[in-house]
C-alpha cells in the first residue's frame, strides 16, 4: 500500500470514536492484548495538518496495543492484517482534553494499515 491521503471531514468534531474500514484485511485479527505492526498517518481534525506519520520515517512501527492512546486500543482490535482503517479520536481518547502534550485538546484523525499481529 501507499501512504494514504486523508480527506478533510466536514462538520464538527465527533464526541465519540469513529471507526471506518477503508480496506478490509483478510489476515490475522488484532485482539485487545496484541502487539501490532502498523503504518499510520495522523492529521489534526480541524486543520487537516499532518502531525505524525510512520510513512515519513520509511518504516512501520510495532507496539503493544496496551501502550497506545485509548482511541487505538478501542479502534484497532477486530482489524485484520492487510486492512486499512480510519480512526477519528476525540481528545478524551487521544492525548486528553488539556495538559502538556502538544496535541492535548485536539481531535485527531489516523489512517492505520495493519501489517502484522503477534
Layout of strands and helices, then pairs:
Layout: E1 18-23, E2 35-44, E3 50-53, H1 54-57, E4 61-64, H2 70-75, E5 84-89, E6 108-117
Antiparallel strand pairs: 1-5, 2-3, 2-4, 2-6, 5-6
Q: Can you give me a brief rundown of this structure?
A:
The protein has 118 residues and is mainly beta.
* Number of structural domains: 1
> What is the structural class?
mainly beta
The radius of gyration computed from the alpha-carbon positions, rounded to a whole number of angstroms, is 13 Å
| General shape | globular
Largest sheet: 6 strands, antiparallel
What is the CATH C-level name? Alpha Beta
CATH domain topology: Chitinase A, domain 3
* CATH architectural category: Roll
Number of strands: 6
In terms of DSSP E residues, the strand content is 25-35%
Low-pLDDT parts are none
Name the helix and strand elements from N-terminus to C-terminus, one letter apiece: EEEHEHEE
On the 0 to 100 scale, the average pLDDT is 96
In DSSP terms, counting alpha (H) and pi (I) runs of 4 or more, how many helices?
2
Distance between the termini: 21 Å
* Residues in helix, %: under 10%
Amino acid at each position: 500500500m501507499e501512504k494514504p491521503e486523508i480527506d478533510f471531514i466536514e462538520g464538527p468534531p465527533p464526541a465519540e470514536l469513529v471507526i471506518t474500514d477503508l480496506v478490509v484485511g483478510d489476515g490475522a485479527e488484532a485482539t485487545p492484548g496484541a502487539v501490532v505492526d502498523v503504518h499510520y498517518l495522523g492529521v489534526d481534525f480541524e486543520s487537516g495538518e499532518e502531525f505524525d506519520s510512520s510513512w515519513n520515517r520509511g518504516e512501520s512501527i510495532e507496539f503493544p496495543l496496551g501502550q497506545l492512546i485509548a482511541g487505538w486500543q478501542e479502534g484497532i482490535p477486530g482489524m485484520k492484517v492487510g486492512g486499512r482503517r480510519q480512526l477519528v479520536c476525540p481528545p478524551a481518547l487521544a492525548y486528553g482534553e488539556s495538559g502538556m502534550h502538544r496535541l492535548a485538546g485536539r481531535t485527531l484523525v489516523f489512517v492505520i494499515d495493519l501489517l502484522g499481529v503477534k
